[in-house]
Metallophosphoesterase (Deinococcus puniceus), 300 residues
Amino acid sequence: MRVSDLPPSSTVPNSSRRRFLRGLLGSGAAVGLLGGATVAQSYRHGVTRHTRPLPGLQAPLRVAFLTDLHYGLFIHENNVQGWIDATNAERPDLVLLGGDLMDYRTDGPPTPLLAQLARLRAPLGVYGVWGNHDYGSFGYYGNRHYGSKRSDWQARREELRVAFAAAGVTLLRNEGRTPRADLHIGGVDDLWHGQPDAAAALAEAGGRATLLVSHNPDLLPDLLAPVGLVLCGHTHGGQVRFPLLGAPMVPSRYGQKYAMGWVTGAHATPAYVSRGLGVSGLPVRNLCTPEITMLTLNPA
C-alpha cells in the first residue's frame, strides 16, 4: 500500500493520498506518527473472531485468514514467527493467505519467510494468492524500492510459486481446490497487475460451499455470480485511522467503502476485508491493529 505503487489516478483516486503523505512528512504530524506509539501499534497483532453460516457446508469449518504480511523492508522473520505461533494456537482446519506476502526485491527465495510459513498447521492445507506487492517483488514493475523492472518477471513468479509450494503453501491464480467434499476454495490473480478471473477460480465448485480469496476488494462489485464468502486484504484498513474521520488514505477506487470489516459485493455476496498484518509506505499504524482473522463457519 505504497503511494508510488498505486495505479494511475484514472483507476484509483490517489492524488489525495500523495498530498496527505507529503503534508504528513513535512509537518509536525510526522513526529507524532513516527513516534513510539504508532510504530508500536504496527507490531502488535490481535486475533479477531467471527462466526457465521456458509451455505453448502456439511460440517463446521475453522478458517484462519492472514494477509498483507509484507515480509521485507519493515517486517522480518521474528514478526512472522509471532503470527504463525498465534495462528497455530487457534487450531484452524484451513489457513488462507490473502497476498502481499513479500515486499522486497530478491533474486532468491525468501527463505526466512518460507521457513515460518512451513510451520503452519492446518489439516485441510494452506492456500494463498498473490498481491500487488508480490508483483513488485517479482520485478513486474520498478520503483525506488524494487529497482528496475525485470524482463524475466514471469519466470520469477513461477520460481517463487514452486518455492512456496515446497513450504506447504499452494498459490492459486484463477484456480481452485477442493480440500473437503463439501468445500471449494478459489483464488484469483491480483486485480492491479494480474488478470483476475473469479469464474475460473470457482468453475469446479459444483454444489459445494465456496470460499474465494482476492487480494483486492475492488473485485467485489464485478462478481458475475454469488459466492459463499470472499476474503480480501490490500487496504490495511487504511493503516492510519482517526476518530470520526476514519482513514484518510484507502487504496481503493471506492474510498472507505471496502476499507475493512464485513462488506457486501455483487449478488449480495458477503465479504470480509482484513486490516492485514504488515505495513508498507511507513512503519506506522493508528487505531488500526494488525489482525489474524479466525472464522468459524457453520452449515447454513
